[in-house]
Structures are given as C-alpha cells and as structure tokens.
Amino acid sequence: MIEQHFGRALTVGVEEELWILDGETLELVAGVQQLLGALDGRALPGVFKSELHASVVELTNEVADSPDEAVDRVAVLREAAAEAARAHGLLVAAAGSHPISRPEQQEIAPEERYRDFVEYAGPTARRQGVSGLHVHVGMPSADDCFRVLETILPWLPLVLALSANSPYLAGEETGMMSVRAEVLGLLPRAGAPPPVRSYAEWEAFVDRMVATGLASTYTSFWWDVRLHPQFGTLEIRAPDQPTSLERTRAFVRLLHELCAWALGAPPRPYDPAERGVYEQNRWAASRFGPHGKLIHPDRAEALTVPELLKELPIAAAGFDGESCEADRQLEVGRADGLRAVCADLVERSLA
Fold it and tell me: Within a domain: residue 3?
C-alpha cells in the first residue's frame, strides 16, 4: 500500500516554478545551483529545489492554513530567489513558457532522477521547458481525496483557460494561449487520470504501473490533478505559472474554495465518457484561453468562458473570464518584440 498522511483538511501548499535569466540577454541560463547555494541556510518560510532544467528553480511554501497565508510566504520566497539571482548577475521571472530560449538547448539539472527521465523520454523530456502552478490542498482521508478529484476535474479546463500564460515558445508565437498544456501532453501519463471508481482502484492502477518498472512512484504520473497520499493532499497541476503574484493568489483561493465545495458535494456519478469531454475542453482552453468555448460539465452545451465562469459552483473572485496573462504577453510582443516581453515578465513577477 502507498504510505498515507491524510487528516489535515484544507491546508495549503503552493509550488511555483521560476525561470532563471541572464541579467543582460534575458535568455535562460543554467543557474539553479548558484541560487540554491546562495539560499542554503537562510531562514525562509519554505524551500527551494531544482527542476528538470537547470534554468528553473522551484519554490514551495511551508504548509499553511489558508490561501492568503500560503501566498504571503510565496511572496517572501519569490523575493529571496530574486535577491539571490541578482547577486550572481541573474534575474528571475514567472510565466508558463520562456518567450525566446529553446527548451531542447537547456541543461538538465544534475540529478539522477532527471537523467533517468531524459534517457527514457528522450526529446519529449527535453521539450518540457514549461512551468506550472501546483496547489496542494489537504484532505481528511484517501476516499475524500479521490472523491474531490473526480468532483473538481470537469472544471479544471476552465481554470486552465483563465490561467493561460504561455503563448510563445522558442522565439515563436505558437497560436496557443497555453502552449504549456500542449507540451505537457507529449509526456507519458499526462492529461486527466484514468477513470476508476475508487481510491482502491486508483492505487491498484498505480501499483500495476510501478510493478512494470516504467514508473517509479505515483509521482511519475504527470496528470493535471493527482492524489498525493504521502503529503495527504490533492495536488492540482492544471494552471500555467502566473506572472503576477496577485494572480497566483487568486488561483490558490479559487482552487482551495473549489476543493472545500467538493468536500461537501455528493459524489459525481461514474462516467468514463466524461474523460472525452475533458480532453476536448482541455484542448480548447490551451488553444484559445478565455476566448473559446468549453462544454458544460453537466449538460450538452458549449459556453463561452465568461458564461461558464458564472456556472462555477463557487464565487470566482478576481476573475471576469475576459482575459488572461497570455493576452498581456501577446500585446507587448506584437508591439515591442520578445525581449520586451521578457523584461515585462521580470518586472511583473516582483511587482
């Protein structure tokens, strides 16, 4: 059985992935070891660690009791990362993709698990030069965690649409508002988790995959949302990495409230065909962001994002459904070029 630590309901953990940039060119640079060295030993409300590419640093707050407490700690961690970067002539920025640098050309972080992953997934792994916001919400039990996952899953494409913040990749305007979602789809075990009826069936599926040797643990499944029994949380991984800290705050609040609602909601009927609706909505959210149409989770109707936002079973404070951060990137890029986009991301990441 997978080790479990459920019991603390609705606690909040936030993971952000920040780009490390050359201070002059604003292109990606493999500076994570420099940043980790500069941050080591500091008394901070969270931790830093490496990611797949050495041009990314991940930050995670200490477990918090509320969304605002969590994001207040993230703000301290963002500033600490920026300070450490500046000491080495570097900068940090937050977004779903870097507008200019090519992911395939980035150094892989010097850790065995990343080397093993690249050896297995090859070019698919090297293309994962994208960043997301991951929100952990504490759950009372494994069964509650599974039920909440299935209840909120149909609404996550709406969250992706609102969060779209990766219209550029490798110096090109991609035609996607969230190219990150498309790139993640290249991974094995991506998108929505498979339809099963219970936590026990989910655990049996994971155990079967791990037994093959092709996956090491359940953390080798890069789904948009996944159970995290060792942390006792539901980990929601659907949103693009926000640039604005206040945008992060709004998404953490939204996802926390969605989970709180789902804890009290009746179980969603088992319907494997809903995964097909999910994939359609996920694609539309990636392609159009808030400017497309998504199928309603509970009826055969395609609605605009603002219309569907009004159908969300909780209040969505801070969102009008009309725009996303990708719109800002495209506006700046079309007017002033991609280096100006990078400069704008740096400025807004610490505003």
Answer: no
